[in-house]
Design brief:
Helices cover about 30% and strands about 20% of the residues. It has about 350 residues and is an alpha/beta fold. It has two domains: about 130 residues; about 200 residues, 3-Layer(aba) Sandwich (Rossmann fold). Strands 9-6-10-14-15-16 form a six-stranded mixed beta sheet, with helices on both faces. Helix 7 crosses helix 8. The longest helix is centred in the first third of the chain and has 27 residues. The protein is globular, with a radius of gyration of 19 Å. It starts with 8 loop residues before the first strand and ends with a strand.
């Protein structure tokens, strides 16, 4: 396990009816940190509130409640763990250490990266202490890193495919997808050769994916709580299962949120299990406006860093970190965590 920690620490959080603990794994440390402030009963109570499912009438109430949940998660888990690890507040993402979170038990679906207490100060949150990524298992992270060294360079110029479903039979419209396509293309600029597929079927999509380095999906997704490899994206005629896709970067809008109990079984982690080196996506449905803003900032950050190269793993995590932070710090969205807390990076 410690061999997986060359780029940063791995933090395993386990909540059970008996006790709650975090396990800190670094290249030279394996330490258990008791978490008495993170009880299973409290976790169950938060989960039962189903805060991530909102309607127009209860959105304000649930956002306020979710800020309370993130504060509980910060004080009961994330801050004690990062304190033990020796992390401290810093204003620049470039100076922050990387960490990978693995949640088990009741903690399997918790957004550790978004934990924080806004009432205690503007920088009292995980995003100012570390650049967070996730992995469902140590083995999945090891595989992602091994794969990073084996992906061939297809050409000197990078190629991207944008797969969009503005409307999906039986699932409704996604009105923000065309604007999303535009801002992604603009952010990538001339440094990336881009192919756009609207309303493609699975066969067509798979054919184009063989020739690209970056795949960006603006469509619905479905989760399978029993088999994450059967989770997938809904295209024109069928679902593209995670086991079929083998690309480097995925942006996916998740439509269906399952009740998760013992593993992180959603679309995003399913794609990492399938072998993706980097996966960027959402733990629950995203707002069109925020999705467009984050996509624009994410790709602009990657281009600005000049790090669209195979092996530039930190750049991907930092780009998402910065993109989400811009939304989180804005006066418009600061107190609306249900619009930004769901964005995660999985992989190397």
């Amino acid at each position: 396990m410690q061999g997986c920690c060359t780029e940063g620490s791995i933090l395993v959080v386990n909540i059970t009816d008996l006790r709650s603990d975090a396990i800190i794994v670094t290249t030279d440390v394996f330490k258990v940190v008791p978490l008495p402030g993170l009880s299973a009963q409290q976790a169950k109570d938060w989960i039962r509130q189903d805060l991530i499912t909102t309607s127009l009438s209860d959105r304000g109430r649930k956002n306020k409640a979710y800020l309370g949940f993130l504060s509980w998660l910060w004080h009961g888990c994330v801050k004690p763990v990062l304190d033990e690890l020796g992390c401290y507040r810093q204003s620049s993402a470039e100076d922050l250490p990387r960490v990978w979170w693995i949640g088990t038990g009741f903690a399997s679906s918790f957004p550790f990266h978004s934990a924080g207490d806004m009432s205690a100060g503007p920088m009292e949150g995980a995003c100012y202490w570390a650049v967070s990524s996730y992995t469902p298992t140590f083995k999945a992270l090891q595989y992602a890193r091994e794969r990073a060294g084996t992906i061939p360079s297809r050409s000197d110029s990078w190629r991207a495919v944008i797969v969009a479903m503005p409307e999906t039979p039986g699932a409704g419209a996604l009105p923000g997808t065309r604007l999303e396509q535009f801002v992604v293309k603009t952010a990538m600029g001339s440094s990336v050769s881009i192919k756009t597929l609207e309303y493609p079927d699975v066969a067509s999509t798979m054919g184009h994916l063989q020739e690209c380095n970056i795949a960006h999906f603006a469509c619905y997704g479905v989760s399978n709580s029993f088999d994450p490899s059967s989770s997938g994206l809904i295209l024109q005629t069928a679902k593209t299962a995670t086991e079929e896709l083998k690309k480097d970067i995925l942006s996916v809008r998740q439509n269906q949120v399952q009740r998760l109990s013992d593993e992180v079984l959603h679309v995003v982690s399913g794609f990492q299990v399938a072998g993706f080196r980097h996966v960027v996506g959402c733990l629950w449905p995203s707002d069109d406006e925020v999705c467009v803003d984050i996509a624009k900032s994410f790709y602009a950050e990657l281009i600005q860093c000049g790090d669209l190269r195979v092996g530039s793993d930190r750049a991907t995590a930092v780009a998402l970190h910065r993109a989400v932070l811009k939304v989180r710090e804005s006066s418009k969205f600061r107190k609306r965590p249900l619009l930004w807390a769901q964005y995660v990076h999985y992989g190397a």
